Amino acid sequence: MNNEKLNEIRKELELDLEKVDSEAYLNELKVKYLGKKGLITELNSEIKNIPNEQKKDFGMAVNEFRNLFTTSYEQHLAIFKEEALNKKLETETIDITLPSKKIKRGSLHPMTLMTEEFEDLFVSMGYTVYEGPELESDENCFQKLNIPKGHPARDAQDTFYLKDEFENFLLRTQTSTAQVHAMEENTAKGPLRIVCPGKVYRRDEDATHSHQFMQIEGLVIDENVSMADLKGTLEMFCKKILGDKVEIRFRPSYFPFTEPSVEVDVSCFKCQGKGCNLCKQTGWIEVLGAGMVHPHVLEMCGYDPKKYQGFAFGTGIDRFAMFKYGIPDIRTIYGNDIRFIEQFDRKDDTYEVK
Questions:
Q1: How far apart (Å, rounded) are the C-alpha atoms in residues 73 and 273?
Q2: Counting beta carbons within 10 angstroms of the beta carbon of residue 111, is it exposed (0 to 12), middle (13 to 18) or buried (19 or more)?
Q3: How deeply is 244 buried, as exposed, middle or buried, from its count of CB atoms within 10 A (0-12, 13-18, 19+)?
Q4: How high is the pLDDT of residue 205?
Q5: Cis peptide before 328 (omega within 30 of 0)
Q6: How many angstroms separate the CA atoms of 325 and 348, rounded?
Q7: pTM of the complete model
Q8: How far is CA 216 from the centre of its chain?
Q9: How far apart are CA 116 and CA 331, in angstroms?
Q10: Euclidean distance between CA atoms 132 and 219, whole angstroms
Q11: What is the largest CA-CA distance in the chain?
Q12: Cys staple from 327: which of 31, 277, 296, 322, with CB 3.0 to 4.6 Å?
């Protein structure tokens, strides 16, 4: 191949490179010169036919063509890529100063949040979570809790009985029934430490009560258990849930299934005991009922009251949720209003229901 032919290819290459105006045309030139049948590729295949004394010069000319095309190709391609990116940025501009859109996600119900908080606390103290059935026999719901038929304590709880062959069954009025099951199922009749969360049913209905609400009760049975153990447990519980500054006090009370029995008050966490509308100007708020398990209850559930003692306590989960989240009406909790539930779509523990 003579020098005249090489010069023609070089001029053609230079003219083609000057005409490049798009990435598509640039790729066409790549095929034209470097493809299987491209001009530069054909020049490489001609080297074997060139006389030995001319091969060096011919090879240098071919490499020059290849380098010329490759350099120009890369430069033009970089320009086209940058132009495409700039155009994309212009058409897809995002104003980063605008507020982001909130990602919708599910939120736990306040009763679920409160129950899990209670369970986590008591599990860390060595308790086991025990859930009993909501449909109970009259025997488990009352009689084995030292509330025989005709007892006046039934008047505030009798409700939702079934008819016909199930007439001795009702929806449980307290989660103490789960304690009966746990004591009976503990065939070894050894130490027991449980908390029993769940729904209970009564005929109350006003701004602070509901025919259905959530309770959690605790039961500890062991040798040498005293009121001091009960007070220490409840003091830790109240401080963890309501704050370290909270103080507790016991007031004598009566429950058929405990003896002695107490009502447990906490110092008002809103006014720090000074008196406000929440504590009705007393500085104290009633939150729990508790006491030492009655010997008759231990005996009816198979325990030897001369060997074992125990304490029990119970409170409404709803009540603590109303304190913590500022819920003014218990009926709001069970109203199934999505606007209420959405307020609990938060990662922190600070809530104020609107």
A1: 83
A2: middle
A3: exposed
A4: 56
A5: no
A6: 12
A7: 0.66
A8: 21
A9: 21
A10: 14
A11: 127
A12: 322
- Residue type (1 letter), 61: A
Measure the CA angle with vertex 115, ends 347 and 119; round to 5°. 100
Which DSSP state fits 168?
T
DSSP assigned state of 47 = G
Contact call for residues 18 and 54 (beta carbons, < 8 A)? no
The pLDDT value given to residue 354? 46
- Give dist(CA 267, CA 282) in Å, integer: 9
Q: State the residue for tokens 């409170």.
A: 315
Separation of alpha carbons 48 and 25, rounded Å: 32
- Our CA dihedral for 331, 335, 339, 344, rounded to 10 degrees, sits at 60
Q: Which residues of the chain have pLDDT under 50?
A: 348, 350-354
Rounded CA-CA distance 52/290 in Å is 110
3-state helix, strand, coil in the chain (%, to 5): 45, 20, 35
Backbone angles phi, psi at 81, to 5 degrees: -65, -40
Token pair 């405990």 is found at 258
What's the count of helices (H) and strands (E) in the chain, helices before strands?
12, 9
The type of residue at 64 is E
Strand order in the sheet with 212-222: 128-129, 192-201, 212-222, 309-316, 284-293, 258-267, 248-255
DSSP state of 100: P
Type of residue found at 241: I
Tokens of 135: 């449909």
d(C-alpha 66, C-alpha 71), whole Å: 8
- Written as six digits, the tokens of 342 are 């959405």
User: Measuring CA to CA, which residue among 320, 301, 305 is closest to residue 194?
Assistant: 301
Q: How many CB atoms lie within 10 A of CB 187?
A: 7
3-state secondary structure of 87: helix
pLDDT tens across 4-18, in order?
777 787 788 888 888
